[in-house]
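Exam revision sheet. Question 4 asks you to relate a sequence to its structure. Input first:
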Amino acid sequence: MNVKLKVLTVGALFFIGGQTVMAQKKKDSLGEKKIDEVVILGYNKSSTKPKDVSANTTITADVLDSRPNVSFLNSIQGSAPGVTIASNSGSPGSARIDVIIRGISSINASTEPLVVIDGVPTNANQFRNLNPEDIESVSILRDAAATSIYGNRGANGVLVVKTKQAKFGSGFRFTYSGTTGVSFMPDNRYNIADARELLTIQKRRNVLLGRTLTDAQIADYPIDTNWKDVFFNADLTQQHNLTISSGGENLSNYTSLGYFQQGGLVPNTNFQRFTLRNNINAKSSNNKLTFNAQVGLAFSKRNQLNQETNSGINGNTVQNPLLGSLMALPYLEANRFKNPGDLFNTIGTNSGGVGNFVYILEDVLKTGHIPNRIFDTNIFTSTTTTYKITDDLSLTNRSGMDFKNTDQWNARAPWSYLAQVVAASNSTQYGGFETISNSKEFNFNSVTSANYSKTFGDHQIDLGAYLEYTKVHYLFSSRTQNGLNPLNWALGAGTGYVPYNAADPNKYVPSVSAQKVNAGALAFFGTLDYDYKSKYGFGAVLRRDASYRFAENNKWATFWSVAGRWNIDKENFMEGSVFNLLKLRASYGTQGNANVVAPAAGSNAMLLGTQIVRDLNTVNNGYDNNVGYAVSSIGNLSLQWEEVTQANIGLDFKVFSNKLEGNVDVYRKQTDKLYNDIKSSAITSFYDYRGNLGGLKNEGVEVALRYNIANTKDLRFSLFVNGAYNKNTLTDLAVPVLTGSLINEVGGTLNQWNLVRYVGVNPANGNEQFLDANGNLTENPVDADRVKTGKNYFPKYTGGFGLNSEYKGFFLDAIFAFQADLWRIDNQMIWAYNPAYMASGFNVSADLLNAWTPTNTITDIPALTAPLRSSTSDRFLYDASFLRFKTLSFGYSVPKELLKGNFVKSLKVYVQGENLAVWTKWKGFDPEGLGTFPLSVYPNPRTVSIGTNIEF
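Answer key, structure tokens:
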């Protein structure tokens, strides 16, 4: 029996036949090398590395396996050039992950790449509920040669995900794998004051408790609460996977069952996921008919903070522990109140009293007080049937369905402090509310193609004709009950609802809402590939697309690409050279972006902008409160797709008997017809409306290198590095934005920081000093003193590096990821350095102890009483560049010869770390995220885990 079993046992070792056995990694490595030689492209196209004309990178399963990440996107950070992956939240199960390929390509439209799973285009719905252990490879398609085949959805690049399959004739295999780990909250560098430091600052400012205490009383103050330790604790992460695969002569089957669980570090937050996948491959005995069927089922449950999907409470200390833990007064005692009633009886409705917010936050985080529970059920299935009419001509149909059902319960429990306050403020007996919402989304995609492949002597030609149909159906409904009875209310049970009282119509009024969207797209396209003697190659794509979103005269658009290659190493004059591969390639083409409205994280962009080409009216209250109609939006019948034109020149090479391999790409990507504001006559009651106006350019260089230092039976050692540079420039903008902190003008970068220059503290009086527009010192800057910085919050440099090594069964793998030259304003630092916040009852940075005084004149901290005018300056503009130690894996694989005679064929034990360290100038919890003024970004946890893989 040839079965591979991957097992986790929290550090336990398996002793079989009196021997400690561990899995062998070398066999997996050989399999992955074979996958690397095949390039998975669009639809049913694939190529070998020497014949490929496109810019792409393939990431194989060894990068994804056994990583404690909910989404595979987190695991591929730093593994491919030209790809920026930034997690805007480390909350368990979060969909807030930015993926940008070759720079930001739009101002207002979607900038996320298309994700294709086993040939079926999908969206962010699958990120959360796709088990990374089921993925065989992820191909990142970057240039027009690779993405133009996706037409209206390929403008932002494409991620092609291929799941694992059983091979014909492979026999029977059974596997089990798992890891268990502990996650930790990363630290910040705000130097938040402890109790004695804060009381000292208060005393110096002569405010609050500090002014009433002597220096001795402050030194002996008995309470010093670290609220970060109160609200954040280490949490467990674990995953387990069972796999059964078998392959006969004409039938193969791969089945997996997975479980993943991650604690959220914050009380009452977590994520659980169950997955089931079945992939079947079949073929006829004469090989004319092949069939593939896939079913992926996933169920996930998560408890999350309201802040995860409600940015409106980013600055709310009452509901946001990321903020509250930093601003809570350390001289207050934690867990002072036994229950919400005790808290309400003590502070009443004085929720804004000095320091009281932290007690309310404690109550919010207690289990069941402010629940936010979400259940996702996903069904992803596809079938592919290919029939070879002749040896050269075949017909294929691939049809896929992606169904997602989401149920969410969000409530304010009637016994919670906030519910009691609302009830008291509204003079009602009962407080609290419960919102139950449900969404159903059905995505269908079908592609029918005819493919012809023929070799004529030294010539090979491949032709393809395709028809693609996409349909999306979406239903949403929500019900909110206001007024809950604490005696019998239970979340989601429908009990404890206080009925509406007609005698008092303002009390306990429920609300409902609903939405329905039907969306669709149609495309037909053709492909041509030509090869001569494996020396020269040519490829072309021509695609015609239609979208439901646009008016009839703009419903259709055409996209295309051409590409060529020259395998220089095949030329006679290269005979005997050090090159094993030397290939020059070039491509030029267009892609479209029909998703002109950017979606929220985890949602489908096809469901947005459904009425943007139509005039819409709304019902409202007019004169004398009479019901009337008003214009809510002006339609634009001329609206059409954003269009991206991209040119690319690349070089692929392998030298010194394949010891050194890599590729270099240079590209220019121009976006035109930007979805943007167009000025309108005020006679329409609108000053602007949305249309196609503007241009944006991205230019860059990408490099990827791998050096295989040793590759023998006992020793494998290789180093790899990849990096990319991207420059972003606005090329056309009818109405530039030249005021405010972020400006946009032709010739400048997108969202350029426009700030007053801060130069430090005036040693004469302790006030902030700035430079005016003419470079003169001033303490009172005005808006006209802002200057363009040339900086924005998109990284110019991205990449990663690492190593893969193995010596006599011991292995060590590491990946580092970096992003550089990105700049963000640190709001939290502004508050931590503001004495006015301290005087209002919030904690601040201990750095204020070094504030200017008549005896401390040389300092970078203004006087505690100085007027602060730095809100428009670059004082708190920080370089958010970082180098992250992304992952480290160390373990031992027992040589196969030691396992002969045992039913276990291999066993591997390893220790792994994720997000182990980060080097950055950013002072917050986490430098990641592509945001302007990041506040309360849930950091990526640091995780250390152990695991075991066993094969039978």
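Marking note for examiners. The first strand starts at residue 15 and ends at 16.
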